[in-house]
């Protein structure tokens, strides 16, 4: 193979990779829209059945504050490879968090955040040291 064919081959590969990358970016946007659509049609009504009547329109579902100032919250966490997992926990109106130089009290729907949380058991299991060691071997 002469030098011109090699250069042409390199250019063709870069164009192909560039096209694939552009397609992946577009696919990510499509998957985001589809994910939100599925959340609206399937997930949100199911969470409403267990008392999580509020949804921020993206990744957080939550209840109203109870008498003790606690909201129950479920948050969807986006993972690599177009996957994700749910975390569940509580938001407290009496426990502030730090954002930059401000204290946020989480008393509004917009400021709702999972403060005390847990993840699904399968996700927790994937982070155990023994599992990571077996992956390395």
Write out key terms for the chains shown.
137 residues; alpha+beta; 5-stranded antiparallel sheet; elongated
Task: Describe the protein.
The chain is α+β, with helices and mostly antiparallel strands. Helices cover about 45% and strands about 25% of the residues. The protein is built from 3 helices and 7 strands. The chain has helices spanning about 5-50, 120-125, 130-135; strands spanning about 55, 60, 70-80, 85-90, 95-100, 100-105, 115-120. The strands form 2 sheets. Strands 1-2-3-4-7 form a 5-stranded antiparallel beta sheet. Strand 5 and strand 6 form a beta hairpin. The radius of gyration is 22 Å and the shape is elongated. The model has no long low-confidence stretch (mean pLDDT about 75).
């Amino acid at each position: 193979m002469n030098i011109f064919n090699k250069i042409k081959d390199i250019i063709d590969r870069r164009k192909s990779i560039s096209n694939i990358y552009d397609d992946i970016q577009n696919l990510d946007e499509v998957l985001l829209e589809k994910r939100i659509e599925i959340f609206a049609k399937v997930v949100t009504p199911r969470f409403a059945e267990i008392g999580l009547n509020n949804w921020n329109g993206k990744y957080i579902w939550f209840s109203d504050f109870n008498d003790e100032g606690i909201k129950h919250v479920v948050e969807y966490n986006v993972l690599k490879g177009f996957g994700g997992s749910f975390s569940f926990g509580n938001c407290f109106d009496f426990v502030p968090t730090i954002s930059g130089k401000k204290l946020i009290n989480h008393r509004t729907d917009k400021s709702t955040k999972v403060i005390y949380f847990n993840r699904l058991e399968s996700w927790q299991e994937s982070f155990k040291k023994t599992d990571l060691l077996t992956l390395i071997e």
